[in-house]
Protein: LacI family transcriptional regulator
Organism: Paenibacillus cisolokensis
Amino acid sequence: MQSITIKDVAREAGVSTATVSRVLNRNGYVSHEVRQQVLAVVKRLNYQPNALARSLKQERTRTVGMVLPDMTNPYFMAVARTIQRRLLAHGYRLFYMDCDEDAEREREAIRVLQEMRTEAVILAGTGGNADAVARMIEAGRTVVLIDRTIDGIRADAVTDDNAGAADEAAAYLLGKYGPRFGIITGPRSTSTSRERAAGVKRALERAGCPSDPALWYEGDYTRRAGMEAGHYFLGMNEPPLAVFSFNNEMTYGFYLAMKQRGLPLDALEVVSFGELDAAPLFENRLSVIRQHPDQIGEAAADIVVSRLEGGAEGEPVQRVIMPALETASR
Amino acid sequence: MQSITIKDVAREAGVSTATVSRVLNRNGYVSHEVRQQVLAVVKRLNYQPNALARSLKQERTRTVGMVLPDMTNPYFMAVARTIQRRLLAHGYRLFYMDCDEDAEREREAIRVLQEMRTEAVILAGTGGNADAVARMIEAGRTVVLIDRTIDGIRADAVTDDNAGAADEAAAYLLGKYGPRFGIITGPRSTSTSRERAAGVKRALERAGCPSDPALWYEGDYTRRAGMEAGHYFLGMNEPPLAVFSFNNEMTYGFYLAMKQRGLPLDALEVVSFGELDAAPLFENRLSVIRQHPDQIGEAAADIVVSRLEGGAEGEPVQRVIMPALETASR
DNA sequence: TGTGAATGTGTAAACGTTAACCTACAGGCG
DNA sequence: CGCCTGTAGGTTAACGTTTACACATTCACA
């Protein structure tokens, strides 16, 4: 229950708490014998320093918080893992919170991270908490947005070139199939979906093609939405000749719909933001826009570290990662 | 930077810190006007209580730690998500640490969680840190093992009936194909793999079949290991008629190997512990042993809550979840 | 021989909360 | 009128660390 404190160690070793602290933190002068003596007692009593007290006194937690919309999405987990490794190497711990694409839980997560005094917050936001984020920045906390930006928020950010990649992909589809391809978007509340949609429209306009609203299906980045979009498109009188899906989960859902309708999965070409784990296992005509999650993670971690170690001041940094379109082999 | 403290709020509102604390924690008597006044100041200053100080004083963090071997494995994430939801409902936060199946990082994670004074630790252990876990229990901390147990450790645990399920699966394969099926195990250091292996052996013995060492491949629960096992088995002069894989990731790897070798993925039957996300998308003869991650998560969360709220004392609780073998349709 | 730097150790004041304890006033009741 | 109870709010001592400061001792050097 109640743990061993530095006082217990000090008493047992016959020294003051200051000395124990000095031994443990390797600062100040301590003689060799005393040091050995203290370390022996620490080991014998299995003493674990109280990080709460330490952080309170030092006013540093060496902890970074991260709020993710979906921990079951391998894309976000890949980003998170890279960030964690990188931060660990610099002596910071990462505290994940999953908010399930829910703005309310996201707000709560942000609150908790602030109360825990995490030194920075990395956020892939739902878009619903601009005010809370703004207050956080205003209070001088380091905030790094990843993947998604938030309207009206000027903060460090690491994002994909969504418009560019979507433009390229749409142009590719246009060239191959003309304008009759379906688009499965994410929720309008996310910057990624809005930017990707803008990219597609740009490509269509450049080619002088009108955009047919019937070919746009607004999903919400979930598997289920992808499936529903699939049934919508495949049930049309004149189904589209190809489909552009704005994330990996919806792509998976789309393929499920094809399967349910008894269509061969290579019946039409699909272009997808984000990779599909399952892709190598089935016949398909899947083109993928690789988002390089580790590049995003590395960039985010680097920004956090430089803000925390170097001066916290300075204009917001914007890092844009270039996704790569990898087209289906046939 | 340095945040607003309860003192600032107190000064601004013209009351003592005790009163502010009372308002915030809804205990003790505070008049309506003062309460409104304080809340207004809290809002205006955007005051965030310091959880470090609070926890230090109260000697409660309302935080539970969780150490996972692999955050990219959807099975563990499903367990984690259920636990988080359940704990949140009881007012606890969950702090995940990923240790990447590495005993050293696991040890480090356990240390950090103890220093943070998480009130309980939920552990899916690599098996390499029995001593650290023993010390943690000895120190009176609540520890719940999930999925895997640790040799020589008596603690609360939520596990699958691994031996039973493996026995059933092996018996099923024996009846259908005789003893010539391959087995891809996990690392010997994990209790799950040992128990599953024991189950298979039990079934073989009962049937009076000798166990052929050439049909056992020791993997390490990674995709890569499954792939290597695949090439090993499929490259044999007389390849096995079916394969039993001890986890989902290795199953995925096995299918990759089949693909690489140009075999149709339904060329032989595979029985796998844990589900495969991709399964619905390709032709296969996959039988799955469902492990019910949410049942495991619920049970683990319930044990934690009852230990933390009710008496911490009492004999270790052992909850065994029954996995369900779901055989391939053909 | 005095002086200053380097080394070694203790004392005590923070860090931001909470909660035990105290004071004070009102009103009800015998 | 005295006393108890309920309400309202202030004072202050913790919680377990770190660290500024103080005090010794040793040793080199002028």
Chain B has three domains: 6-49, 61-160+293-321, 162-290. Residues 233 and 239 of chain B are 6 Å apart (CA to CA). Residues 293-309 of chain B form the longest helix (17 residues).
